[in-house]
Amino acid sequence: MHEMSIALAVVDQVESAARPDGATGVSSVRLEIGELAGVVPDALAFSFQLACEGTVLAGAELITEAVVARARCIPCAESWPVGMPPRLSCPGCGGASVELLSGRELRIAGVSWHDAQVPTPTHEER
Amino acid sequence: MCRVIDLQQAVLAKNDACAHTLREDLAARGTAVVNLLSSPGSGKTALLERELTLARSRGVPVAALTADLATENDAVRLARSGVPVKQVLTDGLCHLEAEMLGGHLDGWLPSDTRLLFVENVGNLVCPASYDLGETLRIVLASVTEGEDKPLKYPTAFGLAHLVVVTKTDIARAVGFDEAAFRANVERVNPGVEVVLTSVRGGEGDGVLLDRALAARDGGPVHIPVMTRQSHHVHDVGHRHPHDRGTADRVADSGAVGSSRS
Ligand SMILES: Nc1nc2c(ncn2[C@@H]2O[C@H](COP(=O)(O)OP(=O)(O)OP(=O)(O)O)[C@@H](O)[C@H]2O)c(=O)[nH]1
Ligand SMILES: [Mg+2]
Ligand SMILES: [Zn+2]
Ligand SMILES: [Zn+2]
């Protein structure tokens, strides 16, 4: 399964963001997974645990948020949830002048971590 | 102290960036990549051997790279065509990634290659997520696999630039319903071309080669709905400065990078 590759990519990216900021531990990672991303959240959760071992993410919780896939017909200006299996032609006119509004996300939305330092404000900080 | 960071990074951004670079580097030297995806045993190697042989007889410089979990059997079969062939053993990995592919091309791919055919690991799930810098992604299904394959693997079929049905010589024997298959493809990837092939019956001889050459020469390539994304709709105000921008993705329009953010 490529969930392990995905998990490793997540760990890699979180590490490169957290390390320079002096993070001592990551408590959770929030991941958006679109319905059409081709990733199974349960399989990912398992791989994620393994991928975190021995890194600053050890013991971090993976919070996955499913993103509903929606498409829009440009001529009809109508949008719909594509469902599963997805319907990507327009249910109204049957046309193919359609674009995807959401559903292929595979994105690290947020990370929470601890650090020992005095906070240096960045634009990313809440 | 504890803090929460809005990272907003596409998980596959690194692969997408590698794929983008590979596509540009290869295009600069006149090479286009064709990525072949299917379930195990759909007939990728058989069809590819036929098309490579044809390319050689027509004097078109092509090459092929085949990825498998184990054995060099596919490379041995493909090499019978007489074109340069490379076997990649993925060491347990169920798909190819752009960086791996790029690494295998260094020092091997002949500089005059016009088309590089890549036979991905037989698997319809994992390889679908990884853009390899291809100009054309072909998804194959044999008539024995059932008409609902496109519905069971919507991400794979939904991202195809071309869908190929294989083994049509046995379509009658297995009761293949072509109209149902086409309708299912249309549902997940409206407008994509579906072509019929058989290496036994000779159907669709040269079709892969023709479509691939047309795409390489700048001909129109189908843009799957799944790759037509309106970034502005859901991403405004959330873009991380290190994230790759929309302009980048638009330049690749039709490319199948899975994680456009
Ligand atoms: N009847 C018939 N059999 C075919 C055809 N093409 C391939 N086959 C048979 O299907 C089987 C699998 O073909 P391959 O070309 O090895 O399939 P593949 O997709 O490369 O398989 P993997 O690399 O293992 O994923 C072989 O026994 C082929 O002889 C065809 O057009 N007609
Ligand atoms: Mg094969
Ligand atoms: Zn896999
Ligand atoms: Zn419509």
From TrEMBL, chain A:
HAMAP family: HypA_HybF (MF_00213). Ni(2+) binds at residue 2. Zn(2+) binds at residues 73, 76, 90, 93. InterPro entries: HypA/HybF. It comes from Streptomyces albospinus. Coiled coil: none annotated. This is Hydrogenase maturation factor HypA. It holds the Pfam family HypA. PANTHER family: HYDROGENASE MATURATION FACTOR HYPA (PTHR34535:SF3). Involved in the maturation of [NiFe] hydrogenases. Required for nickel insertion into the metal center of the hydrogenase. Belongs to the HypA/HybF family. Keywords: Metal-binding, Nickel, Zinc. The gene is hypA.
UniProtKB/TrEMBL annotation, chain B:
It comes from the Bacteria. Pfam families: cobW. Keywords: GTP-binding, Hydrolase, Metal-binding, Nickel, Nucleotide-binding, Zinc. InterPro entries: CobW/HypB/UreG_nucleotide-bd, Hyd_mat_HypB, P-loop_NTPase. Residues 231-261 are annotated as: Disordered. Residues 33-195 form the CobW/HypB/UreG nucleotide-binding domain. This is Hydrogenase nickel incorporation protein HypB. The lineage of its organism: Bacteria, Bacillati, Actinomycetota, Actinomycetes, Kitasatosporales.
